[in-house]
Every structure is written in structure tokens, then in C-alpha cells.
Amino acid sequence: MKNTMANMTMLRSFLCSVPLFCFLAIQCAADEQVLKAGAAKRDITPQEPVPMWGYGERHAELSRGTLDPLESAAVVLQVGKSKLAIVGLDLGRSPSESSLQRIRERIKSEAGIEQSFIAGSHTHHGPVVELIDKKGKGKGRFDAAIRYCQLMEDRIVESILEADKALVPVKLASGMRELEGFNRNRHTKLQPPPVDRTLAVLRFDDATTGAPVAVIVNFAGHPTSVSAMTLEFSADYVGAMKRAVEKEFGGTSVFMQGASGDISINKGDRGDHIAFGAALGREVVKLASSLSPVLPNRPSLVFKEERFRFVSRTDLSNPLVRVAYSVAFFPELVANFVDEYADGIRPRLTVALLNGDIAMVGASGEFFCEHAMRLRMRARKESLLFFGLCNGYHQYFPTIEAAAEGGYGADTQVAPAEVGAGEHLMNSALTWLFQMQGKLR
């Protein structure tokens, strides 16, 4: 009898403790599942003369100063234990494979950031970042460029780590609109030409103070407004756009280039790259100001990344081909591309899904606009941001139709990946997004 009474007493105590235990468990889970964001930026402008990226006719001619500074602008997102860095660089491309790996290793070990979108704006007035400390690949002739790559890596890491330290709970809003007259298709002769006119923004506000934390801007358009023979560093229209947004709206502005492989900007009567950037900035502010940020009900952050392998349409092992490229650019630069493509063309695809409804897709090349347009339509997501020149650089990815039409950006000289590679990557991104939503196993 005494044992029975004791057992009943223990049972009642257990049952009474269950609601409290469940409440604490739920409360802990709720505390963990808060969307946080932080932002920061660093100057990444070279301080020494180095070769400039973007135009073959410059060859190895060195830079002669700075028109406007180059930046690394970073946003770090956190939900629970998951962290993601979104980094916009005023560079022609994402850092080289070795630099990218070092940057990622550092932010993972120092801040627990497991995944990142690290992308170049594609300015054609940034420094060459492929040269390395080996004979015939930069050492001896371009030591300043090698020193710059170390500085660049450090500054990118600093911007990410500072953003991580600035993490605060945030409200979020996303918005997209068609922006007429700001870009055009520079490739096709077919009518009507495809043009991705999508301007997309992600707005993060401090949940406590309401102050702007960051505005991520996604738009497609080659930053080639400054003359090729101007040997001064410039972020092109992107820098002016970011300055306009930060001045009028506040927070940190991060630009992520879209699928701009066949898309140029359309300056019209807007003047130079500064005036065009300011005009684009006003459109960003208008869109961001129209949004109403809210606390996500069920914050979530999932991501996936994979490297693919495609056969190269260009045989860089052929000495004659290498000589031709070396004449068009310069030998040390070509030697590094030969190493990169020795095992085929290996682009990287990165996909993240925020709160189950905001999709971000990054790919390491210059993708033609219809890749992003079709993916956005097929994914059935109101907010899908496509980041080109992201997490590596593997030149152009035309659509199959564009490859059949031919022309710059679609021919083998600058689009070495086998025909259909871009479609394969977009199909993979679509599959992953449906899997992340539980719609595909």
C-alpha cells in the first residue's frame, strides 16, 4: 500500500511537471528560432598598381589610380544555429577557388558561418584576382597583385566577421518589381529579345529600434559604363547606387549581380555611371520604402551547395589555343585558368531558402537572363533572387538557344562549358528548392 501511494505521488509530480517542461522546451525552441541579421563593409581598393580585370585589350597594363572605391559589403543571417553570409564585392568576379576556400574556412572557424554567397558585381574596373605566388603564374612579375589578393581576403573576412558581431533580431520584407528602361539584351538578334527587368530587394530592419540594418539589391546589368581605356578602379554604377541607397534609406546596401551574361545597362539620357547608379538607387529606395517589414512567424534557413563537372568545349591543353588566349589576355592569367579547368568546367551551385518562401540561387558564372527568368517562373516563388558570378567564376553560361545562335558570350571562346550546362544547373536548383519545401523527396 505504501509503495502504491508513493508511486501515485511520483506520478502526480511527473504529470504536474510535464506542462512546465513542455513550456520551457517550447520557449527554448522559440528563442532559438529568431531571425537575426548584421551588416558591415570594408574598403577593398588596391593600394598599388596591378593588372585590371575585364577587358582583354588592356592585357597586363597596370592600374593608375582610383575613380571611386571598391567595397566588400556583407550581411550575415542567423536562424537558430544556421548562419549564412551574403557578400557583394566590387570586383569583376568572385574570388579565385583558392581564395574562396580560405575565406570560407576562416569564417567557419571564427564565426561558425557554414554557408555563403560571395559574389562579384562584375565591374570591369576592378583588379585581376587570379594571380598566385608561383613562377609563370604571377610570381616575380606581378607581386603587387599577389599581395593584393591577401589584403582582399583579409578585408572580405573582416566585413563578414563584423557583420556577424552586429547580429540583432530583425524584421524582414521582400519585394520585386519590373523596372523598365534600365537594361537591355546585348546578345540576341532575335525579336523580341529576352530581358530580365526584375529589381528585387530584401529589407532588414532592427526589430527593436526599427532602424534599417541592410538592403540587399538584386538586378541584372553589366557594369561596363566606364571606358575600357580608363585605367582607374571604379565600382561603376553599382557604387553610386549603393551610396544613394545608404544616404536616402540608411543601413548597409549590398548589391548582388543577377543573370547578366547577355544583359547590359541602358543609360539612356541618365548621363554617366554615377548618374545612372543614382537613378537606380532611387528606384531601390522607392521599392524598399513601399514594403512593411514584419517578424517572421516561423523563421527557418536551409541551404545546399554542390560542384558540378562539365566537359569543356575549349581545349586549353592545346599549345596553340593557349598561345591564342595568352595573346588576347596575358600568359600568367591564362596559366591560372588552365589549372582551374584541368579537370573540366566545375561550376558551383548554391541554394538557400529563407523562411520557406524567399529563395536565393547563386551560380559561379555569367548566366544568360532566361536561366533566371525561367527558374523564377518554374519555382512558383514570389521572391527568388538569382546571384550570378557567385562562389567562383566559370565564364559564360548561355541558354541552348543562345548557343545555337552564337555570338559573344555564347561561343566557345568565353563559354567553355558544354551546351546545356546552364539548364542542368537550373534544373538542379529547382529540384533542391522543392525538396527544401518538402514537395519532393
SSE map:
Elements: H1 2-32, E1 35-43, E2 52-53, E3 71-79, E4 82-89, H2 97-111, E5 115-120, E6 126-127, E7 132-135, E8 138-139, H3 143-165, E9 168-178, E10 183-185, E11 198-206, E12 212-219, H4 237-248, E13 252-257, E14 263-265, H5 273-289, E15 301-307, H6 319-328, H7 331-340, E16 348-354, E17 358-363, E18 366-367, H8 369-379, E19 383-387, E20 396-397, H9 400-405, H10 421-436
Parallel strand pairs: 4-5, 7-8, 12-13, 17-19, 18-20
Antiparallel strand pairs: 1-3, 1-9, 2-6, 3-4, 9-11, 10-14, 11-12, 15-16, 16-17
Helix pairs in contact: 2-3, 4-5, 6-7, 8-10
List keywords for this structure.
441 residues, alpha/beta, 8-stranded mixed beta sheet, 4-stranded mixed beta sheet, 34% helix, 25% strand
Mind explaining what this structure looks like?
The protein has 441 residues and is an alpha/beta fold. The protein has a domain at 302-436. 34% of the residues lie in helices and 25% in strands. The strands form 6 sheets. An 8-stranded mixed beta sheet has the order 5-4-3-1-9-11-12-13. Strand 12, helix 4 and strand 13 (252-257) form a beta-alpha-beta unit. It starts with a helix and ends in a 5-residue tail after the last helix. The relative contact order is 0.14.
